[in-house]
Specification:
Helices cover 15% and strands 32% of the residues. The protein is α+β, with helices and mostly antiparallel strands and 691 residues long.
């Protein structure tokens, strides 16, 4: 088979790519079972709970928890959610989850009645929970809670009478009793409290807190206190800051605050965490069991030798973990370096570390450790992300779901970490995917078109996993570059902080520089480069075509696709949810004092500079970037006669979850690129029409 780049007849259809687009939440490994949440695109993105029984560390066939009940476990804390289910109770028999519709906590065994444990707030989703932990006696759980003081009608959550309140509460496992533990005005509370972690004997609790305008990766503090039930009422006594924040004694030397993440108690009762006082999110641990003294974590040494890698990660969502302890004396942990993840074990006595058995994972989302076994949500460049159960001592690794790529190896492009020069004589990083397929190129002199992909966040990173949303393009003859622009996670605190005050500048320059670098290296056709991104990545995509000529990059980008992307920074600052409501203070400047700066960087206010075709894909129910932002930009594009197409997806939010929507979005994007780059996509795909 032969073909021109872009016109290859790929075996990976948009429908197949959408079906393979399952996403996972958190994973729990317990006594004799592994359990996880998994989205089902064909059911509107329902987040199902699934489990498999274990014989030793060997899983049986995966099943749905309580089949036929159509459970959807999805938390909406901070709008991004996470931590939507957990296990506990006597014998580890009870499963707890946050109902996607009501946000109430439910509990049940595999068989038997379902119990609702939290009262209805009277208005839909006004009280939200996540990331629960159970006391050893199974009587109480501690969870994050988010209270919206007043919501609009049950069908419209956009009108908040006041800012949401984030606190930490105890919920009686028997049901319908909720006790506030740490609130905004209490010692250890603040604008945000999160990540409750309970010691093995139930006598201590640790958590994170931070305040506006910081984000958790800027200045989150680690707190801990004594936990107990007095006269039938749970309480926390003598809370104290252990490490992190602006009060950390290491902050002056670093000339910044210290950010803590991922608090966990070891089986012997020492508190562990990650902080970035020494540039990277490395592991530390308290010197002895129990609640550490005030500020004691500031003098605790690193657990492992210093390396340019990160165990920690930004706390975008609740729940999840990146390290744990086996019963055989091993630390199991994820480490990110150079844009790729790795899963490791370290002997706690000798300090020797080695890769875990099984495939060489390049992407790890979360792990859970129990006994000698490890459960992990992970994938490789050639195998889709799935649920694995690993026995480090026996050297076994089993994919519980038996996941496989929907195409053969001859069609799978693997990521190549790249680094290149960008503005200010700085260095940027990314992952390059070359075209790959069982195709003979029609003209060997032809170079492939390029898709520049931008991750969301913007303080996130490209997912280095097998992805149908990447392979959809490479198997059609496109090259793809995932840009980990300055500000991305996984390259240390200094790199992450390069975006401070510079969002809309350095991220845009880095994406333009990536396209220019690959074109000048003769890897791609410099006249056929397109850019696409979701959320903050949509903003960067639009800004790239606004400013490329002005900044000296010429016409390196031929067109842009924005998926639920930000168009007006001022609107985002005014209208977004609590978690991100002060995010732009650090990324751009304080609003409205810096209103002119906001306007100068916003695609909406620079629409006269949009001289390249634009595709806008938007969810009708997006609460983070509402459709109004897209629609105002459409009006500006109309006024300026810029070729564009707009597709609104009914019922979708910030990120598409319905399989039909994902398929339509991919086909619309392919059709759009065919029109603007001058090729005819193979197959019968839905066409988009320019407005």
């Amino acid at each position: 088979m032969s073909g021109w780049y872009g016109e290859w007849n790929s075996p990976l259809s948009a429908a197949e790519a959408a079906r393979a687009g399952a996403r996972f939440g958190n994973v729990h490994l317990g006594d004799g079972h592994v359990m996880w949440t998994e989205s089902i695109p064909s059911e509107g993105g329902r987040m199902s709970i699934r489990f498999a029984e274990l014989i030793g560390c060997s899983p049986t066939e995966a099943q749905e928890f309580r089949p036929g009940r159509l459970i959807s476990a999805r938390s909406r804390i901070n709008e991004y959610g996470g931590g939507s289910f957990w296990r506990g109770g006597p014998g580890d028999l009870l499963t707890f989850w946050v109902d996607a519709e009501t946000q109430c906590i439910h509990s049940a065994e595999r068989d038997g009645p379902l119990h609702v444990l939290t009262p209805s707030p009277g208005k839909v989703r006004a009280w939200r929970y996540g990331a629960g932990v159970i006391t050893p006696d199974g009587a109480w759980m501690v969870t994050e809670r988010e209270v919206h003081p007043s919501l609009g009608s049950p069908l419209d959550e956009r009108d908040f009478a006041g800012e949401a309140v984030n606190d930490m509460v105890a919920v009686r496992v028997g049901g319908l009793e909720v006790i506030a533990l740490i609130g905004p005005d209490q010692n250890g509370g603040g604008d945000f409290v999160a990540a409750p972690a309970m010691s093995p004997d139930g006598s201590a609790l640790a958590w994170l807190r931070w305040d506006h305008p910081d984000m958790p990766w800027d200045a989150a503090e680690l707190w801990a206190g004594e936990f107990g039930v007095v006269d039938g009422v749970p309480q926390i006594s003598d809370p104290r800051r252990v490490a992190g924040g602006r009060a950390d004694s290491r902050s002056p030397q670093a000339n910044r605050a210290v950010a803590v993440c991922l608090p966990v108690w070891s089986p012997s009762g020492e508190l562990w965490w990650c902080d970035d006082a020494d540039e990277w999110w490395h592991l530390r641990r308290a010197n002895e069991p129990g609640v550490p003294a005030e500020g004691a974590g500031e003098t605790c040494p690193l657990v492992m030798d210093y390396r340019p890698e990160e165990v920690g990660e930004p706390r975008w969502v609740s729940g999840g973990c990146r390290y744990g302890f086996t019963s055989t004396g091993k630390l199991v942990f994820v480490a990110s370096s150079g844009g790729l993840d790795g899963l490791w074990t370290m002997d706690l006595e000798t300090g020797e570390r080695e890769r875990t058995p099984g495939p060489r994972f390049s992407y790890v989302e979360s792990i859970s450790v129990s006994g000698p076994c490890v459960a992990v949500i992970a994938g490789t460049p050639t195998q889709p992300t799935s649920i694995w159960v690993i026995d480090p001592d026996e050297g076994t690794a089993v994919d519980v779901r038996a996941a496989s790529a929907p195409v053969g190896a001859e069609w799978i492009s693997e990521p190549e970490p790249i680094s290149f020069e960008t503005s200010g004589n700085d260095i940027c990083h990314g992952l390059l995917y070359r075209p790959k397929g069982a195709v003979d190129v029609t003209d060997p002199r032809e170079l492939p078109p390029l898709v520049v992909r931008i991750h969301g966040g913007p303080t996130a990173s490209a997912r280095s996993e097998y992805s149908t949303s990447v392979q959809f393009w490479t198997s059609r003859g496109f090259a793809v570059v995932d840009v980990n622009y300055r500000g991305s996670t996984g390259y240390g605190r200094t790199y992450r902080d390069k975006l401070n005050g510079e969002w809309g500048v350095v991220d845009v320059a880095d994406c333009l520089a990536a396209a220019r670098y690959l074109a000048e290296a003769g890897i791609v056709d410099g006249t056929r480069c397109v850019i696409r991104g979701g959320s903050s990545g949509g903003f960067t995509s639009l800004a790239a075509i606004c400013f490329q000529a002005e900044w000296g990059y010429g016409d390196v980008i031929a067109a842009a696709c924005s998926l639920y992307g930000v168009t007006d920074l001022a609107s985002l600052a005014r209208d977004t949810h609590k978690f991100e409501s002060r995010y732009l203070d650090g990324l751009v400047g304080e609003y409205p004092r810096e209103a002119e700066l906001y306007a100068s960087r916003s695609p909406l206010h620079n629409a006269d500079k949009l001289d390249k075709p634009v595709l806008i894909l938007q969810g009708s129910e997006d609460r983070i970037v509402p459709p109004s932002q897209a629609e105002v930009l459409i009006d500006a594009l109309d006024a300026n006669d810029v070729p564009h197409a707009y597709v609104l997806f009914a019922g979708e939010g910030h990120g598409f979850v319905n399989g039909d929507s994902i398929q339509r979005a991919l086909e619309a994007e392919l059709s759009f690129y065919g029109k603007v780059l001058g090729f005819t996509p193979a197959g019968n795909i839905a066409q988009v029409e320019f407005c």
